[in-house]
Design goal:
Layout lengths: L2 H50 L3 H23 L1
Length: 79
């Protein structure tokens, strides 16, 4: 083979390698974009749950206080 042929084949191999790497990078970028979108939806859902359940905390505090009173009275009546 001539020197020009070897140079042309080398350039073709490098171009093929760059093309394959570019393809993989594009695929990875698309996957990461999909993951980012999914994480955004999950974050939105978790915030919605947090907002909807925010009122449970004070209600549970009141319930726990009442149950502690009942437990004390039961202990007093049992002794």
């Amino acid at each position: 083979m001539t020197r020009k042929t070897l140079i042309a084949l080398t350039i073709a191999e490098v171009a093929a390698l760059v093309g394959v790497l570019a393809g993989y990078l594009v695929t990875i970028a698309r996957r990461l974009a999909h993951v980012s979108t999914t994480l955004g939806k999950i974050t939105f859902g978790v915030r919605a749950i947090e907002t909807q359940t925010a009122s449970i905390g004070p209600a549970l505090s009141a319930t726990n206080s009442s149950l502690e009173q009942v437990a004390r009275r039961l202990e007093e009546s049992g002794s």
